[in-house]
């Protein structure tokens, strides 16, 4: 037996609107999860050749957790401000730039001690890919903070039709 009452139409519309607003930030949650697991893998492999630089992936994972907290709050707080997300992705961008530079000058073992010369070009590709993803995310953040993203037009159209 069901003990709960069916949701009223207004409640369903409110849940639908909140979900759509929350989905506006979906790309950030996916990219953050990607970087969280990449940094976790990097951190675990760095334990074998532990140096102070091995703290970089650990710090990045903590920062990724801060992004996830900010993103979770977006369900209840209807704001397009993404302060934590923006700053952490700038830091991640800086780490990728540093990684690209160190690989290009042949000093990749300083930041990724478990990769030898044969994996140098793969590492360069990974850092470049990470850099491009970070720049893409920064562009999306700028568009959302300035209300110029495409998803906002879909959201306004949805709300214009009464959220049905």
TrEMBL record:
Looking at the UniProt entry, the stretches that span the membrane are 21-42, 48-67, 87-106, 118-137
Keywords, in A-Z order: Membrane, Transmembrane, Transmembrane helix
Tell me the domain of life.
Bacteria
Is Transmembrane among this UniProt entry's keywords?
yes
Protein name per the record: Uncharacterized protein
This chain's source organism reads: Candidatus Enterococcus testudinis
